[in-house]
Amino acid sequence: MSTKQNKTALVCGAGGFIGSHLVKKLVKEGFWVRGVDIKRPEYSKSAANEFILGDLREQSVVRKVLDQPFDEVYQLAADMGGAGYIFSGDNDANVMHNSATINLNIIHQGQKMGIKKIFFSSSACIYPAHNQLSTKKPNCKEESAYPAAPDSEYGWEKLFSERLYLSFFRNFGVQVRIARFHNIFGPEETWRGGKEKAPAAICRKVAETPNGGTMEMWGDGKQTRSFLYIDECLKGVRKLMNSKFTGPVNIGSEEMISINDLADMVMKIAGKKIKIKHIAGPLGVRGRNSDNRLIREKLNWEPNQSLIKGMEKTYHWISKQVQMTASKVTP
After folding, report:
1. Residues 152, 234: one domain?
2. Do the Cβ atoms of 34 and 11 come closer than 8 Å?
3. In terms of pTM, does the model score above 0.70?
4. What mean pLDDT comes out for the span 302-330?
């Protein structure tokens, strides 16, 4: 258990990509950290002082892990994935039920235990699809979230949960902080299996495809996104938690890029020239980019690391994973 001089933190979703990195950061800052997830981190040992394996859909598990008034709670646990998982339509019921149940359980028990402050990781997927038809000037300003029209059930659940946390703030005084993440990426993220996001999927395909070969890409590749490196994301989360601003606020990059250009970037990093075969597949909105005016105003901060710097680190990590996986199956 934590000592009196340590601040205490609970990280829900500590076995996931962002959660496992957040645990490391909090421990380095001097927090006593309890991590909880249905699984342990896949690529490194958790840095948490205590790690509990448990399903946060179960109220008994939530009571077990939220058994004290933590100084800070970080709620990142969710049923999520990349476009292949979120936009196929096949997982809508699970995405809605699982994530909503977790959030209902966490905020109810947290308020009951008198937690000091709670962070909720929302998503850019809450923004109306009709504001993201342009590949050059999508509108993702925080106030544009209403009238609501998210592009997926994942977005609808995130928007519902934002309102859930804000209602506990209004009615019970629970100190809430809400950030809308825009495509967070980096080493140790999911890179295969159907839940990977665009940066990891492209890195994997480039790593697996020989120079001069062909790789597949969903859509025409002209759809645009911005991607934020994990270290920058965590800086933003900590800035928000240490501020008096509730949010919601975007945490993302304003460096927008087409998926075709992202693929070209990765090829240059790899030193390869690969042909792209465009095929049908789930895509999401046509264009999306973080609008950082509010975070600059409220926190006097915004992410500034270039996309290529983060992609270089991510590609080399994923390339190594591909090589290690290939060596295991080679007779």
Report:
1. yes
2. yes
3. yes
4. 91
